[in-house]
Amino acid sequence: MKYKNRLNRLILSLAVISLLQGCAMSKITTVHYEVQSGRNEKAVKLFEQEIGSYENWVPEDKFMENPAHVWGLIDVCNSYYELGNMSKAEECAEAYAELFLEKIPETEKGSWNRNYFEFRYHRMLLSLYLELGNYEKARYHAEKGIELYITEIGRLTLTMTGSINSQASFMANAAIAFAKTGNQKRAKELLADIPAINRWKSIDTAATKKQKNAHQARGYIAIGDYENARTALESDLGIASYIPRSIIFIQSLGLSEVLGTGEELTDPLNLDELFLTSKMYLHTGEYEKAKIGYDALLNNSHKVSGMGPSRESLDLSKRPSFYYVLFHDRGKIALHDGDQELAVSSFRQALDIIEKQRATIHTESSKIGFVGNKQDVYRDMTALLIEMGRFEEAFAIAERAKARALVDMLASKSDLNGGERADTKELTGLLREVDDLELKAQLVVTGNKAEQQSAQRSVELKQKQILQTDPEFSSLVAVSPPDVKAIQALLAENETMIEYYGDETELFAFVVSSSQIRGVKLGPVDIKEKVSRFRTWIQAPPAEVRGLKLSKPKAPVSHEKKTGEELYNALIAPLSKYIKNANLTIVPHGALHYLPFNALSDGSTYLIDHYRIRVLPSASVMPFLKNKKQNYQGKLLALGNPDLDNPALDLPGAEEESRAITRMVPKASLYTGKQATETLAKAEGSRYKYVHFALHGTFDAEKPLTSGLLLASDAQNDGILTVAELYTMNIPADLVTLSACETALGKIANGDDVVGFTRGFLYAGTQSIVSTLWKVDDQATSILIQKFYRELEKTDKRRALRNAQRYVKDKINDHPYYWAAFQLTGNI
What we know:
828 residues, alpha/beta, 5-stranded mixed sheet, 34 helices, globular
């Protein structure tokens, strides 16, 4: 009763403030009303057109008159989430926390009102980060929500307020977050306690039991406990709804009748329960029962009757996270039935939905996580097409899964005017128009099919205009199916490309030449663990083989070194019969971006002894690799050992390396210490054929665009040359060398290739990049780099790097730590 009275006072406060503050407040109240009525499109449109910004939700000078009122902004955030616009939902939540939650006075912080709205903030972000596949963040918000509204008395006992449905949803999502981060015990505890959820100690009805059972079943399905899911879905709900929830409903009723338009009490099996029941049958191998449910959901969605919020909530096109799963699962059923063509069609529709939805996510790390969370569809489609012998199509799907990563990461940027771009203002304007049109397309009211189609056509026309104006710029803001024949045509007759794609459960490889493509299933390979173990061995050579003298004994064979042979047998040996020449282009995926392929061994020799290797981030970048001769003003610009105001970060070996190569190369310029500034790099980087960085790099896995090279700061720049800045720069060098700490490494997620410096330099106009996979011994690096520049005077970059690496391996120290870290990306 105490909480109910407080809620009544809150609602009364909203009404009173609306009267006192006039029109602006009435708009806020209207937005709140639209949200509560389930009209999310209208709520968002009203917010953006009439209120305009988060700051305008409550004027600054009115904030303290009634802090409780401002917390209603979370409703707008939730509307963005319900519409699938994850970027706006996250942006809104961050503004909500900064503008309102952090300003609540200490005297208010223990109040029920404040706790309730803070809980809603964590509940929404828990759902959002689960959707994006960022499980660590999801768990953080689950824990914060639990702190606010769950107390532990023996077993977990809920004391929170709000609807039963929202409470049960939070508990199920929290359980999934814990399970996804390795705490199955905690997940099962939370799911087991869902039936104990109670609102103000009221008596359960059939409707509230239904809601709790559905969310409990959803949680159990997510963690793979299908028997408990079955128990929850088929449980008797008491005399108000005495028929057990079984597939009989699906068999006897069409979807419109099953869904109904009335209250939960008279709805025997709603859409979510129908989906969960069907999914449970799929996972327990009862395919015929599962098929009935999925076909009902997919074939009858357009027949749903009803009006207003009931109709909106049942429009599957407005629930893309739900919709794509239906097609994916239906494809699995088709595979079980032996209908490969139906499976291909179903998977393709799932991919179309995924890729449309991802266009609304405009954060960096979340974009990558979102793709990664949907990778099963790409993987299953790739596996099926390889099995059917349709290798070219399979290769295109793998490229779509991987090549989108850069587009997604850069979706938050509008200033992509790097390189020698013409019409940058026009392109930037077109990009902003695309963003605006995508948002407007989302806000078209459900049911207006003609308006929806018109909005989508407007987006497509603008994207086509960008493509015609600048194809490379277009590749950063939209993804079209790759032109596989064009990629093959760019491979020389004596070149073989090996592209990897997959995950821990299934890894695939494509061997591509100018005339043919072969897809190969490599099976389950424990890539992450093996690559990690192999790298650990490489980076910690035993004491008896350290140093730069060949006379030192060779390293003893260890388990970790054997891992290199295992990786060779898993990744190279099955493909060897298709590799016809010594020039290899390797396109890694996932953890393979961390792997020094040239150090893989067949037991007696290394890969570098047989092949000349270059690396590409994706095959789709090949049409954009620069190969233009430039009239350079200088030959070499070297920036070594910048002054970072911290003696512990000094790199004397890097400085000596830089001095040595500038003595070797004519028309060379050297800058060290306080002279090696970010400002100088930006001003001079476009004038030289070779640009050499010998310094530290820094990495932010959550926000990869903020990763950077550490240079000296000055009044104009902070000294961090970030990846984001590279996309606005023009560095048309023939070669950029990153002789620094792990500068080839970037963010890796399931659907991503490495998001590192190499991608930024390629877009800035650089033809080739030499980078390192780990921090190498200073002396060995100096020897190798000097040898590399000498070789460049005689041969191409790929041969020059291989010759330098083999020189160190054969003449200095054969342990891979000393020579295997370097790799060439881009043109040869």
